[in-house]
Amino acid sequence: MKADYILRGGRVIDSAAGSDEIRDLYIRGSRLFDPDGEAVECLPERTIDLSGCVVTPGLIDYHAHVFHTGSNIAIRPDLLLHQGTTTVVDAGTAGRANYEAFETDVIRKARIGIRAYLNIDSRGQEDAARPENFDPALFDREGMRALIMRYGAQLLGLKLRLSRGIVPEKKAAEILRESVALADWLQERTGKRLRLCVHVTDSPIPAGVLASMLRPGDIFCHCFQGKGSPILAENGGIDDDVLRARERGVLFDAANGRGNFSLSVAREALRAGFLPDIISSDLTVSTFYKSSHVRSLPHVISKYLSLGLSLPEILRRCTETPAKLLGEEGELGTLRPGAVADVAVFHLTEQTWEQEDFRGERIHCEQLLVPQMTFLGGRPI
């Protein structure tokens, strides 16, 4: 039996398969396969010794900004491949008026797999200094419906940023209700499941109330933010309405970013057993390999090691879980035979470094996940 590549002897962590073990991986074409006891032939130069390495499914960064030709905040998506990320979700950089430019100029030309949320403001998220206008009177319902009918395989749902300075405080609840209604209206007319992803940092609506207004499957984004109302209860632990929302199926994305993560909130939430469903980067031009807040998804993953989570439970939140949310379970986010051969290879090094939150509070870290090699669809990057 022939293989294009044999990846030998790495620590393979695949939460979708419930495995964390030293084993070999076999690639033929764009897929992983199981030789099932048969001898495997492979060119010597394509047999790669990964002893001492951590091998994972290609990372899925569920929240970043990659519409680099249409927004001042976005990065070039293929740069993420060198971090071990093989699929990225753009978190609402494009709106109805410029989504087709995003699809033509960026998505179609990129090597990395890209999915997206559609910003409810038709202009999208153009610039940090010029925020969106989420006035329900301006919702382009028919324009969004037409886009979803055409690009439904790429579009996961709608994006709303519900922060002070972006939405009027007295209208925040109305805007959220109308956005939920818009998602329902579009679902009915397109037949496609559409999530609403809500940026909650410094929202005028208390976290528990906001979470209670979301539907099962919607995304409470930046769940460890520390401006305004956090997810914590006044007497400690997690707000009861937040817990009830999770029980109903609302999903919580940590989406780090520069100003959307609080170490004190994260520590308290993790102590209470409240782990995010998704761990993502929220990378932009201001943070990508520049700031001590994020730098990269492997840096974010490494920070959670210092917060006390195990590597397998962290990786689940940026491989298996997002793959399910993309509707790609079994194809992406796993190293099972038959899956797409998106593979990330890392060294977990003993290294002292620090990361900070938006208040300047620092966490001292002693391990760093360092990318070594990425396979995309069976081919090395």
Task: Describe what this molecule looks like in 3D.
By secondary structure, this protein is an alpha/beta fold. The chain has 2 domains: 5-56 and 337-380, Urease, subunit C, domain 1 (Roll); 59-325, Alpha-Beta Barrel (TIM Barrel), CATH 3.20.20.140. The chain has 9 helices and 15 strands. The protein has helices at residues 99-107, 141-151, 172-190, 207-213, 240-248, 263-271, 297-306, 311-316, 320-325; strands spanning 5-14, 19-28, 31-33, 47-49, 54-57, 59-64, 85-95, 113-119, 155-161, 195-199, 219-221, 251-253, 343-356, 362-376, 379-380. The strands form 2 sheets. Strands 1, 2, 3, 4, 5, 13, 14 and 15 form an 8-stranded mixed sheet that branches. A 7-stranded parallel sheet has the order 6-7-8-9-10-11-12. A hairpin with a 4-residue loop joins β1 (5-14) and β2 (19-28). α2 (141-151) packs across α3 (172-190) and α4 (207-213) packs parallel to α5 (240-248). The longest helix is centred in the middle third of the chain and has 19 residues, at 172-190.
Essential attributes:
single chain, 381 residues, alpha/beta, Urease, subunit C, domain 1, TIM Barrel, eight-stranded mixed beta sheet, seven-stranded parallel beta sheet, 23% helix, globular
What proportion of the residues is helical, as a percent range?
10-25%
Number of strands: 15
Largest sheet: 8 strands, mixed
Distance N terminus to C terminus? 25 Å
DSSP strand (E) fraction? Answer: 25-35%
CATH level 1 name of the largest domain: Alpha Beta
Q: Total helix count?
A: 9
